[in-house]
Design goal:
The protein is an alpha+beta fold. It is built from 20 helices and 13 strands.
Length: 547
Amino acid sequence: MTSERRQNLARVREIAQVAARYGFGQLLGRSSRRAAADAPEVPGTRGRRLRDMLDELGPTFVKFGQLLSTRPDIVPADIVDELRQLQDRARPESFANIRTVVEGELGLTIEQVFTEFDELPIAAASIGQVHRARLPSGDEVVVKVQRPDAERQINADIQLLYQLARMLKDRVGRLSFIDLVGLVDEFSSSIRRELDYGVEAHNADTFRRNFGQDPHVDVPKVFWRYTTGRVLVMERVQGSSLAQLELEGWSEEDRRRLATRLAETWMQMVFVHGFFHADPHQANILIQGPDDIGLVDFGMVGALSQRDREAAVGLLIDVLDLNADGLPRRLRDLGLRYPRNREQELADQLAVVLQRYSGQAMGEIDARAMLSEIFQTVYRLQLTLPTRWVMLDKTLATLAGVALQLSPEFNVFESARPYARRLMAERLRPDRIAERARHDLERGVRVAREFPLQVGELLSELTEGDFAVGIHVDDLPQSAERIERAMNRLVLGMLAFGLMVSSSIIGALLHTGLSLGGFALLAIVPGFFGFFLIGWLIVGILRSGKW
């Protein structure tokens, strides 16, 4: 047995032991008696226990838990709320190992690249850690360095996650509706993007361009000369992280101004730029004053097209106006797909949510709770939103929590309404209308140009016998069952009719042998069974209530 295989088996045993200790042993094959002895399950604590378990299993599992927190379409709400509290933190790597990575990536010694380099990191996570430094030009920078074995460790953990996903799929029937292997695929793709610091550098450049004319939002400059796939050098942004900020000395007005600045910054990202920071927790927001903030850590972002942004503005206005009838159509514009016959059900469920807020002043409405209820209604009906909107839902929930910590009286709807109205008005500008018309015309020309080719492909498939037609009929099993019951009754009815007719014919033609009341006994038997079957059919029809 290879050492790598022995290490994997040891890790699987460790995972099983930790899972059992937090009350999840049955999922991984430990006996129910032993699992119960490890951690008796307390009702209502599964989310906290899962969060603590992932935290103990290490950084890769923490990141997987963070991914699960963005999937409220398949993860229960109480677990999502707990998983959103997971923070990616890890023990710092030794400076000798960090030096090896930096010098190997840049081809120069640290002393040749930097005039100062702080050996103690200011932050450490699962993939890398951040050090303060200074360039020969005098620029103060932060250097994000990937751990030497980060890629190897993550690949090993991903393989274990695939094994666990296949094991749970086979053993836990109630998880059959979740594509566990697909979830690991999604996680694998996401974390491998994070392993390439060049992606984060390009994200930072995009944010810097987008906020280049905004004096209130500071985004660091990337020093591309010293940036590689495993080393990222960026300008050091001044300010204290929101997590470390002492707010006791701030006035309520200043707190409210800061909460408003955060809300407007993210509304600008979502509705104007279509490119948003998807991890707005407190450590990633630096405070420079009540009206000024800095942004860091651009590994997790979301992107929205122009059509997406227009649909989002329309949804926001319908929510602000408590327009339940318009919400299903707005959600469909966002990419939500549902059968047309369920549209009224969705509208009715959303109307129940909005009804609870009718009659309240806009400043009295809990925006976070209201948006959460709308999305939970969608998930409860097992309707799936595209990933970009699920990520936005998680981002807004995190941001709303941060804003409420700053100012419990702050209500995002008060600043969102004029913002949304302004964006809707901008849609009616002549240049915007002309741009949409141009896009529609280009799409129409493209469809017209491709139509003959598509018809040709269809005819080729028909000629070659490769054409297949799939037919989906709602409630087909139930319809087939009803038809089968009707056919059974028809057959029994015909059999009963045949028995009675044969009884009559035999009775009319047979005048010898045993008789009862002058009627041949041989004719009575089929007649009796015929009457019995008819009686059975009548009773069955009456009991079904469908006659």
